[in-house]
Amino acid sequence: MPSPTGVLAPSLTTFTRSVRSKGVSVESSIDNLVSLFKRRQIRDSRPCAVATAQLLRRVVETSKVTDISKLIERVRQIGQRLISAQPRELSIGNIVRRVLGVIREEVEEDREGETSGYSDAGTDSRPQTPKEQDSRTPEPSTLSSRSLTTSPLRHGEMDSILEEVGDERPQRPPLLTSHTSYAVTNTAPTVTSMFSLLSYPRSNIHSPTATPGSQSPSIHLSLSSQALANAGAVKDLKAEVVEGIHEILEELNQADDQIAGYALEHIHSNEVILTHTSSLTVQKFLLKAAAKRKFTVVHAEAYPNHHEATHADVIGRTKSESDDSLSSEVFQKTLTAAGITVVLIPDSAVFALMSRVNKVILDTHVVLVNGDIVAAAGAKALAKAAKLHSTPVVVLSGVYKLSPVYPFDPDALMEDGDPSKVITYEDGDFVDKIEIENPLFDYVPVELVSLYITNLGGHAPSYLHCIINDHYRAEDLDLDISDVYQ
Amino acid sequence: MMPPANVEGGSLLPQDPDSPKDLLQNGAKEQVVPAPCDNTMASEGNVKGTNGTQQKAKPAKGSNDGKLSGKELKDKAKAEKAARRAQQKGGQPGQQGQPVVDLGPEMQKHSDLKGPSVTGATSAQKFQHKRTGSASGGFQKPIPFRPAQAHAAPFPEEPKRENKNVALFDHLYGNPRRTTLAGASKDVHPAVLALGLQMRNYVICGSSARCVATMLAFKRVIEAYVTPPQNSLPRHLTTHLSSQIEYLVSCRPLSISMGNAIRWLKVKISEVDVSTEESAAKTDLCNAIDNFITEKITVADQVIEKEGSIRYEMATKFKVIVVDSRPLFEGKNLARALADLGIEVQYSLTHGISHVIKDATKVFLGAHAMMSNGRLYSRVGTALVAMTAREADVPVIVCCESIKYTERVALDSFVHNEVAPPEELLIQGETSSPLLKWLDVPNLQLLNLMYDLTPAEYITMVIDESGYLPPSSVPFMQRLSVNS
Q1: What span, in angstroms and rounded, lies between the C-alpha atoms of A383 and A391?
Q2: Which residue stretches belong to region Disordered (chain A) (predicted)?
């Protein structure tokens, strides 16, 4: 995973190492991560997500709880601590919710094993594609196929999925009812034997072809705490949860490549593509297309916060400055080396060039449930210019960046950067007299975005909430300390 | 608007290390004493005189030289010398670090100040001055108080490299901007030589400032001009000016306002009665230029200022948000000036525009030019600001002198624009930036666009010296200002 070369400052790499070493207690790992978040030593969506997943994996691994509901509660509490340490990094919350979802799912599956009479088809609590509803072809449950199950929607199935939207909705209980439904459905049968769990074929459990129609949400989504407490197969569940978290980590690693896989569907020959700031996701996407097609990339440098990274992107990185990356981004080929003409421009020239740009491809920091995105500062003006020129704006985002949080107060998600990047110390005399504004992010409303491409494929803005609903359990939506966003 | 007409920065240069020998020679030839002369005006007069004679002398000499190559060589060498000398004289701003703003009286003071420090030089230079006035070429005695140096810093050989021009803007690149004075026509007046470099280095920057500086420089040119025999002033002065303009263009493309002003000046010159005495004609022209500057820019600015600021006199408290952009950071100066006046200033770059617009109640824009189809041609990034403001329902007001109106129309920022050298995008003072290697990276291009075009829809109102008008009225006003 991370290269141990010369990373001295605390970062994701050092955290990864420490969280894996047996010598470090879980509690200190948690504290460590909380302080890393607070000090912004781990920042940006992916590093935050990776760190959170790693920590939670450790937590689950080392947990001695025999009671699943306690495990859930513990993960939840840790999650809340992490989120409050850095409430603007929504990907932390996303991962916590995903992990909670994995735990709940495993428990449910366990119960399914016991109560197979209940539903003969669906074992997955998440709604699946209707296409495959009736063709439940059992698949060998390898790791990779399981990672697919976490995101079972594939490109091309969108239309049928869209039809299904209406049907799926009622299956998801609204946010608060989940608690009430606990009490109501206490009668749900419980898993009592781990033998039956083992005997249950995993291919069924993890088949991506489970059907949503066969689920009865009142049962599946409403595990009572008592029911959980009674679960006997905690230990094996634990192993499976760890597996599940591992898959999330895998997904985090693969997301960029998966997104890049859709590149050829979106880039045609001789196109002029405008992108903004430095982003591995966009770079991989364009590189993938560059292998087959010739086009021109206009790269706005995102001065003053990201221009250095952007410059490094177009020139090619020499040293491993991308510390927080767990992939090979250090050795990423540049677009220019792939034969693509790259034109580097200052942000101000965006409007002038927009009329000749065919597509704008943006990376994002986070995607909110209504489709609004938080992206690097300057993106909003860029997207607006694109809109005025009727240029499509494509947002690339891993599913892990899709947040179920509704932005009641977008300003709370904004962050200001180092003012000395705008006015350096050479101009110190007039720093005293003026106020300097250096926002790190822009809040780009959904109207300015034409298309989202996640690792599951391309999605219309209106469809985004479905994907989000697929990935997070209703019970976990209110995970946040809600006052942050309200 | 201040007119930083830096036309005679001569006073700066005695210590300039560049090519002393040439300086000596040239100084002699043209009798432009770099600094220490105590009466600038006098020395200027000398310059004029010799300029005229030189013009005559040179062609003759050229024809005497039978061999073409030899002649060319000599011409070139001469031009180089002339250039360097003027550089010495004009004070290349890059070297001196500070733009010199000096008009007549200041100039005097300046040289007075400098005078004592370089007294030693005076005699030598006077000597030189006498010598070369008569015979060009031959005499090459190094000035004693400066280290001799052969031809200083030949311009660096351009290594063969891939075309780094952005294809969309290929038509705008033209010749690379002049970096040295070498090769400048000998007819070019030192004041103009200096001005060209100052424009190139953005020491004089901004449509109005450049216009004023050009007119002041041309005033000097006219003052120094002597009509050659068998020529009339109205006819020959125009061509003489043309060579000055050609040089300026080679430093940086002319601004619209400069174009308008030059057109006006040429008309004025052509209107001069042939029978008028030369000195009288020159005085008339100079006065006309002064009036022009006052009327079109100084007063226009005052009027615009008044029109724009009525509101502020009543409501005393306001805040200014300056949105700046790379690479020139011109807004810094504005922010500094405003802050010095005690106005509350907020400063941000283009990336923060969506944030700062929330606090803004009005957006004021400067202009490079207003196109006849109502579009605003201004520093790149202006369109983004105007667009954001319009989207946020904030009125966008353009302050623009009528000298900047042009009959030209434009639909996009591609056909007519200026592409500045991409090296300017490299971040100043950063030695470790990976971008420094950009020339070695194939397929990588840097685009340093100077202007963009703001659609007329984003502009609520234009303020010029005649009042408020919608952008659609620009062509009428343009016609008026041309006819008047």
Answers
A1: 9
A2: 108-155
Distance, CA of A126 to CA of A399 (rounded, Å): 15
**Inter-residue contact B60 to B177 (CB < 8 Å):** no
B388-426 tens-digit pLDDT = 999 999 999 998 888 899 989 999 899 999 988 888 888
Do B443 and A304 lie within an 8 Å CB cutoff? Answer: no
Judge whether A348 and A303 are in contact, CB under 8 Å: no
d(CA B55, CA B78): 12
Q: Judge: B449–A437 Cβ closer than 8 Å, yes or no.
A: no
Query: CB-based burial of residue B71 (10 Å sphere; 0-12 exposed, 13-18 middle, 19+ buried)?
Result: middle
Domain A12-255: CATH architecture, name and number where available: Up-down Bundle (1.20)
Q: Do A341 and B352 count as a contact with CB atoms less than 8 A apart? A: no
Among A317, A340, A388, the residue with its CB nearest the CB of B443 is A340
Q: Give residue-wise pLDDT tens across range B355-390.
A: 999 989 989 999 999 999 999 999 999 999 999 999
CATH 3.40.50.10470, chain A: domain bounds: 258-484
Of A382, A314, A380, nearest to A348 by C-alpha is A382
The residue extents of the domains of chain B are: 9-151+173-295, 361-483
CB atoms within 10 A of CB B47: 24
Residues 6+ apart with CB under 8 A from B55: B186, B187, B228
CB of A355 less than 8 A from some CB of B: yes
Number of helices (H) and strands (E), helices first, in chain A? 19, 11
What is the topology classification, in CATH, of domain B361-483? Rossmann fold (3.40.50)
In this structure, CATH architecture of domain A258-484: 3-Layer(aba) Sandwich (3.40)
CATH 1.20.120.420 residue ranges for chain A: 12-255
pLDDT at A116: 52
Question: What number of C-beta contacts closer than 8 Å exist between A and B?
Answer: 179
